[in-house]
Amino acid sequence: MNFLSHFYFERDNHDANMVIGVVLPDFVKNAQKDSNLYPLKEKHLFESDADENSILIGWGRHIAVDAVFHSSEFFKLHTNTLKQIILPALQDSPVKPFFLAHIGLELVLDHLLTIHGTVNINTFYEQLGQANKQAIDSFLKKSGVPDTTVFFKFLNSFISSRYLFSYQKIENISYALNRICMRLWDSPFTEPQLALLTDKLSVFKTSIEDDYMSIFSDVEQHLKAGNH
After folding, report:
1. In the prediction, which pLDDT does 3 show?
2. Where are the domains of the chain?
């Protein structure tokens, strides 16, 4: 799941450090894509500091949510459906259809959460800003990031740009997908392909709009069951 979908499960959580922990695995990957951190294997390093422990709990919730989501029938069914829908936009493109469908589904879910007002983007950004930067710095260093400069440059830019507000327009979902693909391929899409991709994403969005909240309910039930 993407940023806002992860935040959905923390929408009533007032612990800003836990909230940033929930999106931290994706933030780290965005800032330094070759980083592979496994703080849950070293829990003892963080448990003596309340803020770092909150970040760790958030990190664990991120992993748990993604595990349920990626093994769900919803994910399998809709990734396959989207893959078929977007194939015409991928002719002569180096982009792998399953990769684009996987990321595309996650971004369309974020888009639907924003247009229906299911999550408050302002609240999300406020909590990111309130998180303890010293605790984040220490957490990352203990997890194996010796120099956190690049990460904080990404984080500060992410917060100041208010980029997620752009998810309210479906054409910006295509733009975001293009940016992600550009990390892996030099010229993922032509302008006509991007326009066609936007059209196909609109078709897909309409097809899941009545049912998209079912996956959030399913994940929430799994999380509650796991806490008992």
Report:
1. 96
2. 3-226
